[in-house]
Write a structure and sequence with these properties.
The chain is mainly beta and 162 residues long. Helix content is 6%, strand content 55%. The protein contains 1 helix and 15 strands; from the N terminus they run βββαββββββββββββ. The chain has one helix spanning 30-38; strands spanning 3-10, 14-21, 24-29, 42-44, 51-53, 56-61, 64-66, 69-72, 77-83, 89-95, 108-110, 115-118, 127-132, 136-145, 151-161.
């Protein structure tokens, strides 16, 4: 269920709406708030299952990534990677291929190799967000970790910016 909860003013006269999706709070630009509320922020290609949106949520589930491929229509869009499991700790890697990155959750860090990585495992029912500033394909890998840090399961997907 998506609903706009509160509108905040901040930054350089930028307005943001605090929205709840899958029970997880995140910020979106006010111009997108009505589209999130109305369900018009994204479309799904029926033949391929690819989601096209300005901002999107990728759910990491026990069965895999939902959806496995996200197409963003605009540069500067964000993806919220939501660990939608009951107890799995997830390590996340997003390969920028040396493209510049300019914003991400504090839980993510860009390595010298051009890969955004989670600094610590993303706990169950938590999320991280990453912006995608330039067109291109961004392969991603989600790894389920054991309590000792060993990789238990690998899920692969992709974010494509038009």
């Amino acid at each position: 269920m998506k609903r706009v909860v509160q509108v905040l003013e901040g930054g350089i006269k930028a307005y943001f709406a605090l929205a709840l999706t899958f029970g997880v709070p995140f910020l979106v630009h006010a111009e997108d708030a009505t589209r999130f509320e109305a369900g018009g922020a994204s479309t799904v290609d029926a033949s391929s299952g690819v989601v096209r949106a300005k901002n999107q949520i990728l759910r990491i589930t026990p069965a895999g990534l939902e959806p496995p491929v996200i197409e963003l229509e605009r540069m500067g869009s964000s993806v919220f990677f939501f660990n939608d499991t009951d107890s799995e700790a997830i390590a996340l890697e997003i390969d920028y291929g040396r493209k510049p990155g300019y914003c991400a959750s504090g839980a993510m860090a860009m390595g010298e190799d051009g890969v955004f990585r989670s600094k610590e495992p993303v706990a169950a029912q938590q999320f991280v967000a990453v912006c995608f500033p330039t067109p291109g394909a961004y392969p991603l890998v989600s790894k389920t970790l054991t309590p000792t840090g060993e990789v238990q399961k690998v899920r692969e997907g992709k974010v494509i910016v038009k």
